Each structure stands twice: as C-alpha cells, then as structure tokens.
C-alpha cells in the first residue's frame, strides 16, 4: 500500500478534501512519511546547525560581556559617577559642589612615567644592558601610574600580594609603590626592592594583582604601578601641562540619579569642562567595540547561514522529487495544494528544528568556553550564563532562513499537476513557485532582515551586508544559468571526457546552481577576510615600522626644551627630531551655538565629548596636507586662527571662516577656521586635531611632545640620557606600541577567522549535499555510459572537468566579489588604504577549486563502483 493510499484509507471513510482535511491526519501523515528516511537532510542539517551555532554563540558572548560590565559597573567606574579632566584637577569649587551632592568622593590621577633601577642596583648587577652594542635596555620601563587618595577605592578592593589592609594610600605612604607582575619580571624586581619613579626613590611594597576599576582606564602602553598622591608630588610628575587624567569619582545616596546629578553640575558650572561617565557608560569604548565586533561577526555568520539555506533549498527539492509519486497520489485523491504545502512544510520544519536546536545548544556554551580562554584579555569579566534572548533571536533567524529557502520548492511541488509529478524522476519540475511559496518566502525573509537589522549595533551596516549577500547569491545563480547556457551552445569534438564534462553542465537536474552559490559565497567571504587581514598585517608589520619614529617623548617642560633639543641633535641629528608644544581643550560652540552631540556624525563625536590635543605653530608643520584654505603667514599677529582636521570639520558641519569656541584651562578662546588638514593618524607623526596660530595661547602652561627617528641604537641612547636627565619625561617605544596594537588586531582576526571557517565549512557541507542529492541520477548516467563502453577513468575525468569548470568560473567571480568587499571594508569601515595582494586571493581560489573537486569526486566515487545490473533493476522496480 502506498503512502497516498495509506493516508486516504485511514484519515476517514471519504477521501479528504483540500479544505476539510483534519489537522491530526495531516500531521500524522507528515510524521509517518518522514520516518521513511531523511538521509538527504543529514548534511544540510549540519550546515544549518553550524550557521545557527555561530550566530547564537556570537550573540551569547556579546550578552555575557555586557552582563559582566553591568554587574561590575560601579567597580569599573569607581563609583556612581566620574568627572574626568585632562592635565589639571577638577576645580576646587566644582569638587566642593560634587561633594555636597554625594556621600563620598575620591580623586585619582592616571599618567605615564618611567621606572628605573637605582644607580646602586645597576652597579650591583653589572652590565645590565648586555655586552653587545645596541642590546635592549632593561634597566628602565615605561609604566602607567595611578596616584590614589585616602578614599580610594570607593567600591571594591585592590588585590595585592602580600595583601594590603585598609587604605592603599595609607599603606603606601609617600615612598611606597605597587607594581604589576609584568614589570617585576621585566626588570627582575621583587617586593622590598627600591626603584626610581620620576625624580624620587620608591620601595616596592607588593605585587598588584587586580584593581576594581582597571577596566575604566582604556589602552595602556606599559604595566600599571600604584602610588599615593603624596608620592606623586615627590616624584615631580604633576608639573603643569603634564599629559594626565584627573578622575573624581562619587558615591550618591540611594535613589539619586547619576545622570541628573551630572546635568545639575553642568548647569551650575557652564564655563568648566570635564568628561562625565555614569553607570550606564562605565566603559563606553569597550562596549562600543564589543557591539561593533559582534555585529561584524554576526554578519559573517549570517553568510554561513545563507549558504546553509541554499543547502536546505536543494535538499527540499531533492526530497520532494523522491516523494514525487506520493505527492502525485495525494493530489490525484483531491488533496489540495494548501494541504500538500503544509504537509511538507511540517516535514521541513521538523528537520530544521533539529538543526536549529543543535546550533542553539552549541552556541549557548560559547560564553563558558570564552570565559576560560579569554580570562584577562578583556578589562571586564565574561559572565557565563544562559542568555535566552540572543539564543531565541538566532533560532528565529535560522528558522526564517530555512523557511525562506524552502518555501519556493514547496510552492512549486504543491502547484504542479500529478502527471508532471510522476515524471519528476526523469524530467525536473518546471512549475512556477506560486503565490503561496512566494509570500511565505518573502514573509520569512522579512523576519530575518528585521531580526538582523533590529539587533545590530550598526543597522545601516547590517542592511548593506544583507543586501550584499542577496546580490551575491543572485549573481552566483545567474552564473550557474550562464554556465549551462554556454554549455548548451558549445560543441566539443573528440575528447570523450571533455564532452562528458560539458554535457554534465547542461543536463536537466544538474546541481550547478547549488554548487555555484555554496562555493561562490564561501569563496567570496574567505577572500574578503583574507584580504582584510592581509591589509591589517601589512599596516602593522610593514607600513608603520618603515616610516614611524623610534620614540615619543612626553611631558617635556618648557625650561627643558633647549637641553633636550641639544641632546637629540647630538644623538640622531636635528633632521630626525620633531617637537611641538601641546595642551588640551574642549570644543564647545560653533558660530556661537553650543554644539549638540546629536548634530555630529557618530564617528567624530569623540572630539566633542571631551578634550582634544592642541598645538600652535607659525610655520606649517612638515608633512601637513591642506585640503582647503591656506596657512597663515609666519609673522602673523592677528585674531586667533585655527587649522582643523577636515573629517572632524565635515562631521560637525564646520567650514572655512566659521568660528569655534574652545575651552582651555577654564578660559574660552574664539578662533576662526583658516584651513582644513588631512590627518594621517597611522603615520605616527606629530598630529593634532587643532593647530592654532602663534599668540593664541600665549602664557598657557603647555608641555612639549617630541618624536625621534633615525638610527635605533642612537635613539635608544637618547632615551636613556633624556630620561636620566629629566625624570619627569616619559619615553614611549613605538615598536612596543605597534606590537601591542598588532596583538590586539591578531586577537580580533582570530575571532574573524573562526567565523570564516564556519562559512567555509557550511559551503563544503552544502556542496556535498548538492552533489549527493543528484547522486542517483549520476549513478544511472554512469551505468549507461558504462553500458555503451565508457571506462571508469573517462567517466571520472568527465565529472572532474564538470566540477572544475564550475569551480573556476565561480572562483573568479567569488574572488572579484571578495576583493570588492575587502576594498569597501578597509576603505569605509577601517578607514585605511586598500592594497590588493595576489597571494590571499589565489590561495582562497585554489582552496575553493580543490574543495569542489575533492567533494565532488568523493561524493560520486560510489557511483563508479556500483554494478550496472543493480542500478538497472532498481530503475525497473525489480
């Protein structure tokens, strides 16, 4: 008894109509028919699970980081709110007002310094720098200094070894210091040793393990040391103009809003400038970075899921062709198109649900895995838990993708005539998708777009990425049609294997479309990521070291400038020295109107939220690239003018001739925009957001910053002599900073590579599924060719040629699309120059071609070993 006869006989006495079929009978038949086998869905189920797992894992990890921040927000911030100023403490009047509104306040200072071994320690150790000329200096190190007051920390406690009881400032006194283990290891120090910081000696009281607010300080160029504020004055590191951050934290009474408190302070002190942080923005930089990274990884995972959807569509079509006789019988027994559509949609739903469940379970484990591997890499903890919202979102996206790609095949099968269905084993179904299939697919696709765009940190980017994925799939679909059309027109004389390969491309039911989409999309993503990583590696490993200075020297006091210039000229030559004065100010108004952050493009708001670096110069600094306007005369002595970053000017709607109100050390200066400059931040030269005309900041307590290029050994010698002569001066090794940046980029690239592997794996699985779906036809074709005398070698060569043609054509298109995507990412997202490289493109293309050949030949190898008699008996129904 056939499946159609079974459902007709058991659903009721009369043959059920399309409109009156009981739901229980419909569900019972769908499940009974599904028990006949789902072998064709096994690989597709895996690819769907892979895409959902990637999306669920990324979303769950993002939620775990956000939860860690939320849990420790007060500790990360150091209180309920923070007011930060640069180069100067919060004015006493503002501090008193804040104290009156709070239950407790604490002030800390964050700045850079140089820790050095004492001369006695250097002599005791002998030749600390090694005998070889130019050996690395290991008697000093750049450090990040935190000077704390008696109230620190307001929240949490410092972890040290040995433990400190009570206030860290009281325990350290004026001559004590805590140091991270990396500094102790680098200089071979231990608690009890004496070191020099600035111009004073300090005794190491212990090893700093953790501080509660360590996530609130941002990127650090050196190990952390902690001293009391009494020690800061002893060390001479608090000179006027020093590049430092003064942070005043406050605890508020229960029920008092930090945001309202900040607003009240800003209203009370409109002439003062600070940068405020509250609990909802304890670490906005990290939060934004994690959200953007999660969005980018999610979009790559969506590409993997879309490739899995191609496999779902192919498997659905193959499943319906295998059930063609059953569907024909059901329709002949008056089962309507809607009922047929629902029966097989339920079957697809069962299989998709299993794949989605596997993916969700796998994705849910990612926070626990990441918490173990990434411990200490982020300044905030990863809080493992079961985050239902991102898991449910990933599941819904997976379901939407599965339905969107399945509905067209179901629509075609449910709308075709029974006679055509009975011929489906020989002639592929050519019916239209129908309104039901189109509307269902569009509804599911709309759900996917809404979920992805609505949950993205950058909705515009997500929308563009989805559109790009859709266009790419259409391009590869068109490529498959084009390959088949060309194959139909080409006539290949002689060479049986070549004729077989070309004929395979044009035969009915060939899986060229699935192969092209799966392989092409995978190669496009792989090529794009490979080129982006190559550009970042090129930037870090080659571009920067070739043109970057050897050292930055910070906090050079005005009275130290003549001696420093002489030392630098003697060591590296005056042509390798660049020096400019610097201080910081805050842009408050444009043409008399206070600048609203909402009116500034997102990418440039950093310059409005806090103070920015400023300098002044009569001559146009070397390397300046003016995009509009002209530089002022060297002897200019008129109203204050300013040269400003052109991207910032565009971002806040400013142009030449406009006036800016800049708050500098409590004094408002109105300057006129004279010209716009293109700033190349990555060349590590002396760049400032604003360069003013001479005289605009006369008398301001500025320090100087310098860069030194030339011979590395000579620059290192200058670093030693300058920091010995001027203990307040900090020297930043550009090489060390570049290596830290490279390590950060490599960590991000590692996460992207893992997601790219998921895309490639999904492509391989769908590729295998497409080949296996057509395996029965290939076996019959192989048997018929054997019967007429073709050898296994000829048949295998023909199959290899077929896959090779598809792989080469699609590989070229994928490489071109990936290159275009990489250009867009580097140019518009990373904002760096794009450099094409043949090696990553060629490696990706060859990997795709090899994968296509390997999967294709492995999948059809069985067809060459099956005895012809067995296949012929199966076809005859014997």
Question: What do these coordinates show?
Answer:
The chain has 878 residues and is an alpha+beta fold. It has four domains: 1-80 and 282-457, no CATH class; 81-251, no CATH class; 460-547 and 738-878, no CATH class; 551-709, no CATH class. It contains 29 helices and 21 strands. The strands form two sheets. The chain has a six-stranded mixed barrel. The protein has a six-stranded mixed beta barrel with strand order 12-14-19-16-18-17. A hairpin with a 2-residue loop joins strand 12 (577-590) and strand 13. The longest helix has 40 residues, at 734-773. The relative contact order is 0.12.
Give a short summary of the structure:
With 878 residues, the chain is an alpha+beta fold. Helix content is 55%, strand content 15%.
Give the overall shape.
Answer: elongated
Query: Strand arrangement, largest sheet?
Result: 2-3-8-5-7-6
Output mean pLDDT.
80
Largest sheet composition: 6 strands, mixed, barrel
Number of strands: 21
What helical percentage do the residues reach? 40-55%
* Rg result: 34 Å
- Note the total helix count: 29
Q: How far is the N terminus from the C terminus?
A: 17 Å
**Which class do the helix and strand fractions yield?**
alpha+beta
